[in-house]
Amino acid sequence: MVDYVIRVHASPLEIDQEAWDGLLQTQSHATPFMRHAYLSALHASGSACADTGWEPRFVTLHDDAGLASAAVLYVKDHSMGEYVFDWAWANAYQQHRVPYYPKAVVAVPFTPVPGSRLLARDATARLTLVQAMVEASRQWNLSSLHLLFGAEEDVAACEQAGLMLRHTVQFHWNNSAEGYADFDSFLASLSQEKRKKIRQERRKVSDAGVTFRHAEGAAISQRDWDFFYSCYERTYLEHGNAPYLSPDFFQRMAHTMPENWLLFVAERDGRPIASSLIAIGSYPAMGGEPASATGLENVAYGRYWGALERVDCLHFEACYYQPLEWCIAKGYQRFEGGAQGEHKMARALLPVKTTSAHWIAHPEFSDAIARFLEREDTGTANYMDDLNARTPFRKEQA
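That's the GNAT family N-acetyltransferase sequence above. Prediction below.
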Protein backbone atom coordinates (compact mmCIF):
# COMPACT_ATOMS: atom_id res chain seq x y z
CA MET A 1 0.00 0.00 0.00
CA VAL A 2 1.54 3.29 -1.11
CA ASP A 3 1.39 6.07 1.47
CA TYR A 4 0.53 9.22 -0.49
CA VAL A 5 0.47 12.78 0.80
CA ILE A 6 -2.69 14.48 -0.50
CA ARG A 7 -2.66 18.22 -1.08
CA VAL A 8 -5.35 20.64 -2.25
CA HIS A 9 -4.28 23.80 -4.08
CA ALA A 10 -6.24 27.04 -4.38
CA SER A 11 -4.44 27.91 -7.63
CA PRO A 12 -2.51 26.09 -10.34
CA LEU A 13 0.27 28.58 -9.61
CA GLU A 14 0.89 26.71 -6.34
CA ILE A 15 1.91 23.58 -8.27
CA ASP A 16 5.38 23.16 -9.75
CA GLN A 17 5.12 23.64 -13.51
CA GLU A 18 7.96 21.27 -14.41
CA ALA A 19 6.50 18.47 -12.30
CA TRP A 20 2.98 18.96 -13.69
CA ASP A 21 4.04 19.11 -17.34
CA GLY A 22 6.46 16.22 -16.86
CA LEU A 23 3.60 14.05 -15.62
CA LEU A 24 1.34 15.26 -18.44
CA GLN A 25 3.84 14.19 -21.09
CA THR A 26 3.66 10.57 -19.85
CA GLN A 27 -0.11 10.31 -20.30
CA SER A 28 -1.68 8.44 -23.19
CA HIS A 29 -3.97 11.30 -24.22
CA ALA A 30 -2.20 14.55 -23.39
CA THR A 31 -3.50 17.79 -24.91
CA PRO A 32 -2.27 21.41 -24.87
CA PHE A 33 -5.22 22.31 -22.66
CA MET A 34 -3.83 20.43 -19.68
CA ARG A 35 -0.50 22.22 -19.80
CA HIS A 36 0.37 24.17 -16.68
CA ALA A 37 0.64 27.38 -18.72
CA TYR A 38 -2.88 26.99 -20.11
CA LEU A 39 -4.49 26.34 -16.73
CA SER A 40 -2.47 29.11 -15.11
CA ALA A 41 -3.54 31.57 -17.81
CA LEU A 42 -7.18 30.71 -17.22
CA HIS A 43 -6.70 31.47 -13.53
CA ALA A 44 -4.41 34.49 -13.68
CA SER A 45 -6.49 36.22 -16.38
CA GLY A 46 -9.63 35.96 -14.27
CA SER A 47 -11.33 33.74 -16.86
CA ALA A 48 -11.65 30.66 -14.61
CA CYS A 49 -11.41 31.57 -10.95
CA ALA A 50 -13.63 31.84 -7.90
CA ASP A 51 -15.05 35.16 -9.14
CA THR A 52 -16.42 33.49 -12.29
CA GLY A 53 -17.74 30.43 -10.43
CA TRP A 54 -14.68 28.22 -11.05
CA GLU A 55 -13.05 27.90 -7.62
CA PRO A 56 -9.80 25.93 -8.04
CA ARG A 57 -9.11 23.09 -5.65
CA PHE A 58 -6.52 21.20 -7.65
CA VAL A 59 -5.67 17.88 -6.00
CA THR A 60 -2.18 16.36 -6.00
CA LEU A 61 -0.76 13.14 -4.57
CA HIS A 62 2.89 12.92 -3.59
CA ASP A 63 5.16 10.08 -2.56
CA ASP A 64 8.87 9.78 -1.90
CA ALA A 65 9.60 10.15 -5.63
CA GLY A 66 7.64 13.39 -5.98
CA LEU A 67 4.39 14.17 -7.77
CA ALA A 68 2.55 10.87 -8.32
CA SER A 69 -0.80 12.15 -9.62
CA ALA A 70 -2.73 15.37 -10.10
CA ALA A 71 -6.15 16.59 -11.21
CA VAL A 72 -7.84 19.84 -12.19
CA LEU A 73 -10.74 20.12 -9.77
CA TYR A 74 -13.05 23.12 -9.53
CA VAL A 75 -15.88 23.76 -7.11
CA LYS A 76 -18.74 25.39 -9.03
CA ASP A 77 -22.01 27.13 -8.30
CA HIS A 78 -23.29 26.84 -11.89
CA SER A 79 -23.05 24.49 -14.90
CA MET A 80 -21.86 26.90 -17.58
CA GLY A 81 -18.80 26.24 -19.71
CA GLU A 82 -18.84 22.46 -19.23
CA TYR A 83 -20.52 21.00 -22.39
CA VAL A 84 -21.78 17.91 -20.58
CA PHE A 85 -25.21 19.17 -19.69
CA ASP A 86 -26.69 18.49 -16.27
CA TRP A 87 -29.33 21.22 -16.18
CA ALA A 88 -32.08 18.64 -15.80
CA TRP A 89 -30.32 17.15 -12.79
CA ALA A 90 -30.02 20.58 -11.18
CA ASN A 91 -33.71 21.29 -11.86
CA ALA A 92 -34.72 17.98 -10.27
CA TYR A 93 -32.76 18.84 -7.15
CA GLN A 94 -34.39 22.27 -7.03
CA GLN A 95 -37.88 20.80 -7.38
CA HIS A 96 -37.19 18.61 -4.36
CA ARG A 97 -35.64 21.52 -2.42
CA VAL A 98 -32.24 19.83 -2.33
CA PRO A 99 -29.18 21.95 -3.23
CA TYR A 100 -27.32 20.81 -6.35
CA TYR A 101 -24.71 23.55 -6.12
CA PRO A 102 -21.94 23.71 -5.17
CA LYS A 103 -20.59 20.70 -7.02
CA ALA A 104 -17.11 19.52 -8.04
CA VAL A 105 -15.98 19.33 -11.66
CA VAL A 106 -12.79 17.73 -12.96
CA ALA A 107 -12.50 19.45 -16.31
CA VAL A 108 -10.64 22.06 -18.32
CA PRO A 109 -12.90 25.14 -18.20
CA PHE A 110 -14.71 26.02 -21.44
CA THR A 111 -12.83 23.26 -23.28
CA PRO A 112 -14.80 20.20 -24.46
CA VAL A 113 -11.70 18.38 -25.70
CA PRO A 114 -11.26 14.72 -24.70
CA GLY A 115 -8.00 13.97 -22.97
CA SER A 116 -6.19 13.02 -19.80
CA ARG A 117 -7.79 14.53 -16.71
CA LEU A 118 -6.14 12.39 -14.06
CA LEU A 119 -2.41 12.80 -14.51
CA ALA A 120 -0.85 9.78 -12.85
CA ARG A 121 2.37 7.84 -12.74
CA ASP A 122 0.51 4.51 -12.63
CA ALA A 123 -2.92 2.93 -12.18
CA THR A 124 -2.64 2.82 -8.39
CA ALA A 125 -1.96 6.54 -8.16
CA ARG A 126 -4.81 7.27 -10.57
CA LEU A 127 -7.36 5.23 -8.61
CA THR A 128 -6.20 6.71 -5.31
CA LEU A 129 -6.61 10.19 -6.79
CA VAL A 130 -10.24 9.49 -7.75
CA GLN A 131 -10.98 8.08 -4.32
CA ALA A 132 -9.35 11.10 -2.68
CA MET A 133 -11.49 13.50 -4.72
CA VAL A 134 -14.69 11.64 -3.86
CA GLU A 135 -13.81 11.72 -0.17
CA ALA A 136 -12.93 15.41 -0.39
CA SER A 137 -16.27 16.11 -2.08
CA ARG A 138 -18.00 14.42 0.86
CA GLN A 139 -16.04 16.45 3.38
CA TRP A 140 -16.78 19.69 1.51
CA ASN A 141 -20.51 18.83 1.52
CA LEU A 142 -20.71 18.96 -2.29
CA SER A 143 -23.63 17.39 -4.11
CA SER A 144 -21.53 15.59 -6.69
CA LEU A 145 -18.26 15.09 -8.54
CA HIS A 146 -18.10 15.12 -12.34
CA LEU A 147 -15.10 14.18 -14.50
CA LEU A 148 -15.68 15.42 -18.05
CA PHE A 149 -14.20 14.20 -21.36
CA GLY A 150 -11.74 11.83 -19.72
CA ALA A 151 -9.20 9.52 -21.32
CA GLU A 152 -9.80 5.77 -21.30
CA GLU A 153 -7.60 5.17 -18.26
CA ASP A 154 -9.38 7.98 -16.38
CA VAL A 155 -12.75 6.44 -17.14
CA ALA A 156 -11.53 3.02 -16.05
CA ALA A 157 -10.30 4.39 -12.72
CA CYS A 158 -13.58 6.22 -12.16
CA GLU A 159 -15.59 3.11 -12.92
CA GLN A 160 -13.43 1.08 -10.54
CA ALA A 161 -14.10 3.72 -7.87
CA GLY A 162 -17.86 3.32 -8.38
CA LEU A 163 -18.63 6.41 -10.47
CA MET A 164 -21.38 6.29 -13.09
CA LEU A 165 -20.53 6.77 -16.76
CA ARG A 166 -22.23 9.04 -19.28
CA HIS A 167 -21.61 9.10 -23.02
CA THR A 168 -21.90 11.98 -25.49
CA VAL A 169 -20.96 12.39 -29.15
CA GLN A 170 -18.40 14.62 -30.85
CA PHE A 171 -17.22 14.82 -34.45
CA HIS A 172 -13.58 14.38 -35.47
CA TRP A 173 -11.81 14.28 -38.83
CA ASN A 174 -9.07 11.73 -39.47
CA ASN A 175 -6.49 11.81 -42.19
CA SER A 176 -6.23 8.76 -44.43
CA ALA A 177 -3.81 6.02 -43.38
CA GLU A 178 -1.36 7.12 -46.08
CA GLY A 179 -2.15 10.81 -45.67
CA TYR A 180 -4.20 12.66 -48.25
CA ALA A 181 -1.99 14.19 -50.94
CA ASP A 182 -4.03 17.40 -50.98
CA PHE A 183 -7.54 18.72 -50.40
CA ASP A 184 -8.73 17.47 -53.78
CA SER A 185 -7.66 13.92 -52.93
CA PHE A 186 -9.61 14.24 -49.69
CA LEU A 187 -12.67 15.39 -51.63
CA ALA A 188 -12.26 12.45 -53.99
CA SER A 189 -12.82 10.10 -51.04
CA LEU A 190 -16.27 11.58 -50.38
CA SER A 191 -19.57 10.76 -52.02
CA GLN A 192 -20.49 12.84 -55.05
CA GLU A 193 -23.18 14.67 -53.11
CA LYS A 194 -20.78 15.73 -50.35
CA ARG A 195 -18.02 16.71 -52.82
CA LYS A 196 -20.46 18.90 -54.72
CA LYS A 197 -21.75 20.56 -51.56
CA ILE A 198 -18.28 21.41 -50.27
CA ARG A 199 -17.17 22.82 -53.62
CA GLN A 200 -20.32 24.95 -53.80
CA GLU A 201 -19.76 26.30 -50.31
CA ARG A 202 -16.14 27.15 -51.00
CA ARG A 203 -17.08 28.82 -54.27
CA LYS A 204 -19.58 31.09 -52.51
CA VAL A 205 -16.82 32.39 -50.27
CA SER A 206 -14.30 32.93 -53.07
CA ASP A 207 -16.94 34.53 -55.33
CA ALA A 208 -17.63 36.99 -52.52
CA GLY A 209 -14.03 38.15 -52.86
CA VAL A 210 -12.82 36.59 -49.62
CA THR A 211 -9.29 35.25 -49.33
CA PHE A 212 -7.49 33.66 -46.40
CA ARG A 213 -4.09 33.86 -44.82
CA HIS A 214 -2.81 32.01 -41.81
CA ALA A 215 -0.17 32.59 -39.17
CA GLU A 216 1.31 30.06 -36.77
CA GLY A 217 2.95 30.44 -33.39
CA ALA A 218 5.15 33.48 -32.91
CA ALA A 219 4.22 34.64 -36.42
CA ILE A 220 0.78 35.64 -35.10
CA SER A 221 1.20 39.38 -34.64
CA GLN A 222 -0.24 41.50 -31.87
CA ARG A 223 -2.53 43.09 -34.44
CA ASP A 224 -3.75 39.61 -35.44
CA TRP A 225 -4.45 38.68 -31.80
CA ASP A 226 -6.36 41.93 -31.27
CA PHE A 227 -8.41 41.40 -34.43
CA PHE A 228 -9.16 37.82 -33.45
CA TYR A 229 -10.48 38.93 -30.07
CA SER A 230 -12.78 41.47 -31.66
CA CYS A 231 -14.26 38.63 -33.75
CA TYR A 232 -14.47 36.25 -30.80
CA GLU A 233 -16.14 38.85 -28.60
CA ARG A 234 -18.62 39.82 -31.33
CA THR A 235 -19.78 36.21 -31.71
CA TYR A 236 -20.57 35.87 -28.00
CA LEU A 237 -22.29 39.24 -27.77
CA GLU A 238 -24.45 38.44 -30.80
CA HIS A 239 -25.69 35.39 -28.89
CA GLY A 240 -26.46 37.50 -25.84
CA ASN A 241 -23.52 36.39 -23.68
CA ALA A 242 -20.28 37.88 -22.52
CA PRO A 243 -17.23 35.91 -23.71
CA TYR A 244 -15.85 33.32 -21.31
CA LEU A 245 -12.23 34.22 -22.00
CA SER A 246 -10.67 37.63 -21.40
CA PRO A 247 -8.22 39.47 -23.67
CA ASP A 248 -5.56 38.87 -21.02
CA PHE A 249 -5.98 35.11 -21.39
CA PHE A 250 -5.14 35.24 -25.09
CA GLN A 251 -2.22 37.58 -24.42
CA ARG A 252 -0.86 34.99 -22.03
CA MET A 253 -1.30 32.31 -24.70
CA ALA A 254 0.66 34.44 -27.17
CA HIS A 255 3.54 34.72 -24.70
CA THR A 256 3.59 31.33 -22.94
CA MET A 257 2.20 28.87 -25.52
CA PRO A 258 2.63 30.44 -28.98
CA GLU A 259 3.63 27.09 -30.52
CA ASN A 260 0.16 25.71 -29.79
CA TRP A 261 -1.85 28.21 -31.85
CA LEU A 262 -2.75 28.64 -35.51
CA LEU A 263 -4.81 31.61 -36.73
CA PHE A 264 -6.76 31.90 -39.98
CA VAL A 265 -7.79 35.39 -41.08
CA ALA A 266 -10.38 36.05 -43.79
CA GLU A 267 -9.87 39.23 -45.81
CA ARG A 268 -11.89 41.13 -48.38
CA ASP A 269 -10.78 44.25 -50.25
CA GLY A 270 -7.64 44.29 -48.14
CA ARG A 271 -9.57 44.29 -44.84
CA PRO A 272 -9.78 41.47 -42.29
CA ILE A 273 -13.40 40.43 -41.77
CA ALA A 274 -13.29 37.12 -39.85
CA SER A 275 -10.93 34.75 -38.10
CA SER A 276 -10.71 31.28 -36.60
CA LEU A 277 -8.25 30.16 -33.94
CA ILE A 278 -7.04 26.57 -33.95
CA ALA A 279 -5.02 24.84 -31.25
CA ILE A 280 -2.33 22.41 -32.36
CA GLY A 281 -0.15 19.87 -30.58
CA SER A 282 1.95 16.74 -30.97
CA TYR A 283 1.51 14.06 -28.33
CA PRO A 284 1.82 10.29 -27.94
CA ALA A 285 -0.55 8.49 -30.31
CA MET A 286 -3.77 7.13 -28.80
CA GLY A 287 -3.41 3.34 -28.73
CA GLY A 288 -2.25 0.99 -31.46
CA GLU A 289 0.76 1.74 -33.63
CA PRO A 290 2.34 5.20 -33.60
CA ALA A 291 0.68 7.57 -36.06
CA SER A 292 4.00 8.93 -37.32
CA ALA A 293 7.65 7.99 -37.51
CA THR A 294 8.27 10.00 -34.34
CA GLY A 295 5.67 8.03 -32.39
CA LEU A 296 3.66 11.23 -31.96
CA GLU A 297 0.22 12.12 -33.22
CA ASN A 298 -0.23 15.62 -34.62
CA VAL A 299 -3.66 16.97 -33.71
CA ALA A 300 -5.51 20.21 -34.44
CA TYR A 301 -8.46 21.40 -32.37
CA GLY A 302 -11.12 23.77 -33.67
CA ARG A 303 -11.65 26.30 -30.88
CA TYR A 304 -12.89 29.83 -31.59
CA TRP A 305 -14.17 31.90 -34.46
CA GLY A 306 -15.97 35.14 -35.22
CA ALA A 307 -16.85 37.46 -38.10
CA LEU A 308 -17.40 41.20 -38.44
CA GLU A 309 -19.17 40.83 -41.77
CA ARG A 310 -21.66 38.24 -42.98
CA VAL A 311 -20.69 36.10 -45.96
CA ASP A 312 -22.58 32.98 -46.94
CA CYS A 313 -20.68 29.81 -45.90
CA LEU A 314 -17.81 31.81 -44.38
CA HIS A 315 -18.09 29.85 -41.11
CA PHE A 316 -17.59 26.52 -42.91
CA GLU A 317 -14.58 27.84 -44.80
CA ALA A 318 -12.91 29.42 -41.77
CA CYS A 319 -13.62 26.64 -39.28
CA TYR A 320 -13.42 23.47 -41.40
CA TYR A 321 -12.07 23.76 -44.94
CA GLN A 322 -9.10 26.04 -44.25
CA PRO A 323 -8.01 24.03 -41.17
CA LEU A 324 -8.48 20.70 -42.96
CA GLU A 325 -6.48 21.91 -45.95
CA TRP A 326 -3.72 22.99 -43.55
CA CYS A 327 -3.83 19.66 -41.67
CA ILE A 328 -3.47 17.74 -44.92
CA ALA A 329 -0.54 19.89 -46.07
CA LYS A 330 1.20 19.51 -42.70
CA GLY A 331 0.50 15.79 -42.30
CA TYR A 332 -1.69 16.13 -39.23
CA GLN A 333 -3.49 12.95 -38.28
CA ARG A 334 -6.62 14.38 -36.65
CA PHE A 335 -8.81 17.48 -36.45
CA GLU A 336 -11.27 17.68 -33.58
CA GLY A 337 -14.25 19.87 -34.35
CA GLY A 338 -15.47 20.37 -30.79
CA ALA A 339 -18.72 19.58 -29.02
CA GLN A 340 -21.91 18.62 -30.83
CA GLY A 341 -22.79 19.62 -34.39
CA GLU A 342 -24.21 16.86 -36.57
CA HIS A 343 -23.73 19.18 -39.56
CA LYS A 344 -19.99 18.45 -39.26
CA MET A 345 -20.56 15.00 -40.76
CA ALA A 346 -21.16 16.61 -44.17
CA ARG A 347 -17.56 17.87 -43.88
CA ALA A 348 -16.26 14.34 -43.12
CA LEU A 349 -15.97 14.80 -39.36
CA LEU A 350 -17.17 11.46 -38.05
CA PRO A 351 -18.92 10.63 -34.75
CA VAL A 352 -16.75 9.75 -31.77
CA LYS A 353 -18.06 8.68 -28.37
CA THR A 354 -16.82 10.71 -25.42
CA THR A 355 -17.25 9.76 -21.78
CA SER A 356 -17.72 11.51 -18.45
CA ALA A 357 -17.94 10.02 -14.97
CA HIS A 358 -20.22 11.07 -12.11
CA TRP A 359 -20.44 10.56 -8.37
CA ILE A 360 -23.69 11.66 -6.71
CA ALA A 361 -23.74 12.04 -2.94
CA HIS A 362 -27.52 11.80 -2.39
CA PRO A 363 -28.49 8.08 -2.48
CA GLU A 364 -31.99 8.55 -3.96
CA PHE A 365 -30.78 10.97 -6.62
CA SER A 366 -27.85 8.67 -7.37
CA ASP A 367 -30.27 5.81 -8.06
CA ALA A 368 -32.52 8.02 -10.20
CA ILE A 369 -29.60 9.36 -12.24
CA ALA A 370 -28.26 5.83 -12.72
CA ARG A 371 -31.60 4.80 -14.24
CA PHE A 372 -31.60 7.93 -16.42
CA LEU A 373 -28.07 7.22 -17.65
CA GLU A 374 -29.01 3.66 -18.56
CA ARG A 375 -31.84 4.94 -20.78
CA GLU A 376 -29.72 7.74 -22.19
CA ASP A 377 -26.89 5.34 -23.02
CA THR A 378 -29.25 3.24 -25.12
CA GLY A 379 -30.34 6.36 -26.98
CA THR A 380 -26.75 7.47 -27.53
CA ALA A 381 -25.77 4.05 -28.88
CA ASN A 382 -28.71 4.11 -31.30
CA TYR A 383 -27.76 7.64 -32.36
CA MET A 384 -24.18 6.54 -33.04
CA ASP A 385 -25.42 3.62 -35.12
CA ASP A 386 -27.63 5.97 -37.14
CA LEU A 387 -24.77 8.41 -37.71
CA ASN A 388 -22.34 5.68 -38.74
CA ALA A 389 -24.87 4.43 -41.27
CA ARG A 390 -24.81 7.86 -42.94
CA THR A 391 -21.14 7.99 -43.88
CA PRO A 392 -20.08 10.92 -46.09
CA PHE A 393 -17.51 8.75 -47.86
CA ARG A 394 -17.91 6.86 -51.11
CA LYS A 395 -19.20 3.36 -50.57
CA GLU A 396 -15.92 1.80 -51.57
CA GLN A 397 -14.17 4.10 -49.05
CA ALA A 398 -16.52 3.37 -46.14
